[in-house]
Amino acid sequence: xxxxxxxxxxxxxxxxxxxxxxxxxxxxxxxxxxxxxxxxxxxxxxxxxxxxxxxxxxxxxxxxxxxxxxxxxxx
Length: 75
What we know:
Layout: E1 2-5, E2 15-21, E3 28-29, E4 34-39, E5 44-48, E6 53-57, E7 64-66, E8 70-74
């Protein structure tokens, strides 16, 4: 399994809200596909999957995740 982590987006940002999953749980994704929209106090962006495989979502829309959290697994 390859984790999709919430990256460090700046020195002052400690967490982000999961605003929208762009794919459904269990979908097959390719490396580099945008899969989730996140929002911090300073920005909004989409994260791409680091690997190809089946996506298993671990943190749902509307939830707050700390930097470094595993948002999903790809396997």
